[in-house]
Amino acid sequence: MGNVAGTKKFSIGRIAIYLFLSLASLLSLFPFYWMFVMATRPSAAYNSIPPTITPGNLLVENFQKVLGQIDFFKAMLNTIILCTSVTLVVLLISSLAGFAFAKFKFPGKNIFFLGILLTMVIPPQLGLIPQFYMISKAGLLDTLQGVAILFFLNPLGIFLMRQYVNGSVPDELLEAAKLDGCSNFRIYRSIVLPIILPAFATLGIIVFTAVWGEFLWQFTILRDPEMYTIQVALATLSNTFKVDFGMILSGVFWATVPLIVIFLLFNKLFISSITDGAVK
């Protein structure tokens, strides 16, 4: 009888957890659903009372308005190029730096690492003017290179990689590789890199989405419509006396689709990096 009661209690507890997680998932997804609904409705539905929660039939029409206002696909291409290049560079720099901070001893190691961490607490707005001045002097205004260079050094990425390498790559494995005559870069390429692939997926998603959604720096550097990223291009949709919310949210909806695709593609690696901290 005791075992039956315990099993029943455990089952009720699991059901309660699943119900809570399901409710939390629905609440998290609702803003995306509401954005889709507004993208299919006229602008007046944005302020309707009671709120409209069922999709309409203006998704294509609203998107056609977007295409009439901005070069949407050119901006999307610029954004994909920017985010992909920044993500690849950040992954390379962060993994190399994280490997060095985790497994090598050199003078000032802790001071350098502490300095990198301290940059995370500095608001990016404080450096906007000097950064703009340097990019201007380098002749990189209105270029994707000028936007990208600011994101290459990622303190969070270095911290995450250091923690992952420190916990997943045993020192004995590295010492054995050195005895076999492997160089440091060979150890990184052949031993460390395969082990930290799940962390790559996590950091890659974080960096890609962060650069995709960043607006202030992109808006400051890019003035040529040919070089607009999707965030800057969408911002120009509201520069009118009459704001068409259906058109704007239609553009935002289609600009969000690539992020959802990226997450679905790397979902397994993303979850693996969170739940798996052991050497395989």
From TrEMBL:
It is a multi-pass membrane protein. Belongs to the binding-protein-dependent transport system permease family. PANTHER family: ABC TRANSPORTER PERMEASE PROTEIN MG189-RELATED-RELATED, ARABINOOLIGOSACCHARIDES TRANSPORT SYSTEM PERMEASE PROTEIN ARAQ. Keywords: Cell membrane, Membrane, Transmembrane, Transmembrane helix, Transport. Residues 76-266 form the ABC transmembrane type-1 domain. The chain crosses the membrane at residues 15-36, 75-99, 111-133, 139-160, 191-212, 245-266. The keyword Transmembrane applies. Gene3D superfamilies: MetI-like (1.10.3720.10). It is found in: Cell membrane. This is Carbohydrate ABC transporter permease. It comes from the Bacteria.
